[in-house]
Design goal:
Length: 155
């Protein structure tokens, strides 16, 4: 049996000159669902769209990063299955990560009204879903083990 993702998420991060991990969180605007929610880049996968392509499209749409802005794109091996009460359905979210060039500038879509580069601890304080904590843990673990990059690198 093949399971197909409904949603693609991408955690954007950079490594500061000091070597510290910084994670980008974006806040949902009042224009849509979950106003005020701090999140990673997340969006629906379009019919016929490849999962990774959806994640990268959402990164460009929601944060304005594309091409050379992304130093590497990673598989995280994280997949979330969650209940969406409005649809009365279980949805599947595939989770990726991408390291952003330190000097790249965030350009938010109208879906979001704020963006912050945060330490992992500060990011944990803003997120509300336990699944997000797992992704932040993955980023900390991964950045501490640069020798594993080739294992997770997609691009």
């Amino acid at each position: 049996m093949t399971l197909r993702a409904d949603i693609a998420a991408c955690w954007l991060y950079r490594v500061a000159a000091s070597g510290e991990l910084e994670i980008l969180l974006i806040r949902r605007s009042n224009a849509g669902i979950w106003p005020g929610l701090w999140q990673c880049v997340t969006g629906k996968i379009e019919p016929g769209e490849r999962i990774l392509d959806a994640a990268l499209r959402e990164v460009a749409e929601e944060a304005g990063f594309s091409g050379d802005d992304l130093e590497t794109v990673l598989e995280t091996d994280i997949v979330h299955v969650f209940h969406e009460r409005r649809l009365d359905a279980l949805l599947v979210e595939a989770v990726f990560a991408a390291r952003v060039r330190p000097d790249a500038v965030v350009h938010l879509s109208e879906e979001h009204d704020d963006a912050r580069w945060l330490s992992p601890d500060a990011a944990r304080e803003l997120v509300v879903w336990p699944a997000y904590l797992r992704a932040i843990d993955f980023l900390e673990w991964f950045v501490a083990k640069p020798e594993l990059e080739s294992t997770f690198r997609l691009r």
